[in-house]
Amino acid sequence: xxxxKKRLPSGRIVLKEKKKRPSKTRCAGxxxxxHGVPRLVASRMKKLSxxxxxxxxxxxxxLCSSCMRELFKRKVRA
Amino acid sequence: MASIGTGRVxxxxxxxxxxxxxxxxxxxxxxxxxxxxxLITGPKPLTGVKxxxxxxxxxxxxxxxxxxxxxxxxxxxxxxxxxxxLITKLGLKRPSAAAMKVEQKKEEKPKVQEELKExxxxxxxxxxxx
Lengths: 78, 130
What we know:
The complex is a heterodimer.
Chain A: E1 2-7, E2 13-18, H1 42-47, H2 50-53, H3 65-77
Antiparallel strand pairs in A: 1-2
Chain B: E1 8-12, E2 21-27, E3 37-41, H1 44-47, E4 52-55, E5 59-65, H2 74-83, H3 86-89, H4 97-129
Antiparallel strand pairs in B: 1-2, 1-5, 2-3, 3-4
């Protein structure tokens, strides 16, 4: 855990532990950051509705849109 | 890649209908507004793609072609697909008669909304006159 200095209202400086944020979700194909996926702790994610957690398309929240396109193009041409 | 014209079987590659098969009905490129657009249909009871305008960039053409009229309704398209043997080839399932009826009813609904809109417009006109 990262330790940070914080100044209290009284002027005293204390050391506090900073909580870790979850890492950004990335595309499994190209590694780009995914849009439309909130960066929240699992317990917070649970409270969101399904549509707020990922884009509404096949592989939404797993692949970026361009990688998904390439996937389907390859599927058709094969 | 094959050209996209009437009767071409395609796969949608973007949006929520991505990965689903559809048939091109007609080219809408004659209007300036609809440049690079075509009219497609799944039909919806068969593949899940509804009858709608679609950008060519969002389609990937397949090697299959079916013989249809640009004005064909969904039932005709399904029959043509069956005739070409595409329903079994693409691993689709022929929709039941009940499912087709539900879709027909859904198509009729927008007409009612249009009528309501017309009525609203008339009311507005009357108010303007007053």
